[in-house]
Design brief:
GO terms for molecular function: hydrolase activity; metal ion binding. With 146 residues, the chain is of the alpha+beta class. Helices cover 36% and strands 14% of the residues. The longest helix has 12 residues. The protein is elongated, with a radius of gyration of 19 Å.
Length: 146
């Protein structure tokens, strides 16, 4: 075999990735904050006509598991669709925040559920039942529903 590099995903790396063996081995770990740790995650893409891979590191906010109900903890760890949705939201969090702030014209730090749902659909380009999903994604203040 005429290999130039081996890319593996085997163990957590503090920066999400690490080169070893004179740059011939690249370890990539895609789970940031793995098991409550403080590591970064990374994604690597290598186009066939490029000399070097493209690497993007990321780190998500840690979740205080003790503050979640048992059912929400189970959902976070066992539902792959929910996990995928959270990854999509986190990868677009900067743009989401920008749109939320722009929509909050009265600077109350609160949005109506319909505006929130519209922004989620527009930014994430996902036609989902956001108003149903809201209970798993955002805190709704009862006094704002009246």
């Amino acid at each position: 075999y005429n290999l130039n590099m081996i890319i593996r995903s085997h163990q957590a790396k503090q920066d999400g990735y690490e080169y070893n063996h004179d740059g011939k081995v690249l370890t990539v770990f895609s789970a940031s904050n793995y098991c409550g740790g403080n590591n970064w995650g990374a994604v690597v893409r290598w186009d066939y006509n490029e000399e070097e891979p493209w690497i993007s590191s990321f780190k998500t906010e840690g979740v205080a598991m003790e503050k979640l109900s048992f059912s929400k903890q189970v959902t976070l760890f066992e539902d792959p669709a929910y996990h995928s949705l959270i990854e999509k939201i986190m990868s677009n969090k900067t743009l989401l925040l920008k749109e939320f702030l722009k929509a909050d014209t009265s600077k109350t730090e609160h949005l109506s559920l319909t505006i929130w749902a519209d922004i989620m659909s527009d930014v994430l380009q996902m036609d989902l039942p956001w108003l149903i999903l809201r209970t798993k994604l955002v805190q709704v203040h009862e006094y704002l529903l009246n």
